[in-house]
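Here is one chain, start to finish.
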Amino acid sequence: MPEFEPEKLSMPEITSGKGKESSEKTQAERLSDLEKEHKAETELIKKSVADKKEQEELLLKNEEAFYKKDLSFYKPFIKKMLQKI
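Its structure:
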């Protein structure tokens, strides 16, 4: 059984860009990368795990990790937008 450790996956750091558009683009790229990674992991689990119960457990863990990371990307963005208000 393959072990998936989403916590150990690294995402690129947000670097300061040439302004507001640059950081938003970086955020969009990071979210896009996260979605691609999640989709690839899901396909890998579906193809490599024969036991349906084990497959469902791994898919659930993968889904939870995805949404946890997704939320962590949005938190700084939301705080920044609220400060502008």
